[in-house]
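Exercise (ungraded).
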Amino acid sequence: MGKENKNSTLEAANLAIGYLLKKKKEILISKNINFSLQKGELIGLVGSNGIGKSTLLRTLTAMQPKLNGSIIINQQDSTTLSIIQLSTKISVVLTKAPSVSNLSVYELVSLGRYPYTNWVGKLTHSDKQSIEEALQATEVLKFAQKKCFELSDGQLQRVLIARALAQDTPIIILDEPTTHLDLYHRAYVLKLLKKLASEKEKTILFSTHEIDLAIHTCNKMIVMTPDKVYFNTPDMLIKQECFSGLFPSEIIAFNTETRTFSIKK
Amino acid sequence: MMQASKKYRLYYILLLLTLCFAFLLNLSLGSVAIPFKEVVSTLLGGETSKTTWQYIIMNYRLPKALVACIAGGGLSIAGLLMQTLFRNPLAGPFVLGLTSGASLGVAILIMGAGFIGGFTGSLLLDTWSITAASALGSFLVVLVVLSATFKIKDTMAILIIGLMFGTFTGAIVSILAYFSNAEQLQQFVFWSYGSLGNVSWTGIGILSLCFVMGMAISIFSGKSLNALLLGENYAKSLGVGIKKTTLLIILATSILAGGITAFVGPIAFVGLAVPHLSRQLFTTANHFVLIPATLLTGSILLLLCDSIAQLPFTEYTLPINAVTSLFGAPVVIWLLIRKRKLVF
């Protein structure tokens, strides 16, 4: 693990997540979270509803404070990074699509250049190049001049991924990027993320309920269960029988041969 | 994105020409008929056939037209800022209780002066103290709405809190009115009608100062405002300091809306309707395009409303606050019917 840690872009050590209430009361959601994510990897985060997937992602992106442990981004402790430094390390795609109906696709994607532009947000030549590349990589260049309200859910999701790409960060974190999408678009988005991770050498972490698809496409996975948080390759996780513990076994069972879940009759 | 493209240049030129036209029209209309040629020659410093005409233009109509420009533009910018900050198309200086805060400040000053005592009371009633009372009133409301913003994440709840503030301050104003004498009551009621014509050249100086400060902060916040379009969490991930930005935006709004309301009284609907008009016209959400567009549209609108309020060629004048509502409400309804969905 020593060598891996040295190259890691995003690392969690003994991380505990949850909410801080008033009077220093803590609501612990999950603890002892350990993982080390590398360049060029696509990592899926799975777990049942309410287990703390969103909380983990929000903690990693500094939208809420951690309770304990440490988050290390590019060898630096996240607490030492300012909000502006952090914006050049991690970009996000959130579950709830922003209501930006009056922005064109190009304008929305160019907002990703925010950390790099001057006070009036003037786009330089290199900014425009990054935007163009992001539009191309996500195959949305052809409707760059369209307004966001004219797009389908699948197209909008690609545009939001393009915006994250334009932010030019080593790490991209997506919260449930495949919800609201049909099977084709779910597979499309996951394939796109896989391609971006390997071709652009990004670390891409996303949460999802599509466990079958995630097992199929991800390099590594983080599996959150009530007792423990697992981190490994999908193959190893199947061997360790982690997926069987995801849901109550009297209703849903994981078949290690077909790598799918089935409902018990 | 952030640079105004050539496409917008034509719109800006058209708006500027309309503004000039509306400005001259506003100067030419009034209870005394002054020929258009004489108006222009007075403005250019030339001779007029009657010295009274020159006096009317220089000391009454010109200041009034300037105030209309500043008030219309400033209130519209304040509305734009609030709509983006709260990500709510219904927000505006009026909806969030800013104007009711201002009216409470002025009510306490005018009608509460009676409680303090005759002499000190009358001393308090100059332009400066009315400005201060109004600005203070709206700033206090803003602080309450702001602290609510940090506690609850739901923007609808914040709007309801603003609405509650309107009702609350309205009640206090009623109680003050109940105990005050006829003269004070009249003074306050006239203030609440809104009036563009009562501002002296000194007043215009103070008003311009508020306007320039508010505008400077707005323009300075333009980049953060654009990021805020994506919502607070996205903005944060882009490196926007949310607390600092929110404070700046609210500061700009209270300087603009508070200052303007102090001098001209409450003016309804301009702040709400004009940003939507500019968005429809320029079909963009980019604030570096919208800020000048909203400014120009707001000035034009209030100049036209004032021209109507003058009821040209009669000796009657309508309260400006009523005219803007008469105009503003149908505009918002028309927008909703035309678009079915409000582009925001």
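Further reading is listed at the end of the chapter. For now, observe: Chain B touches chain A through 29 residues (CB under 8 Å). Residues 6-339 of chain B form a domain with the ABC transporter involved in vitamin B12 uptake, BtuC fold (CATH 1.10.3470.10).
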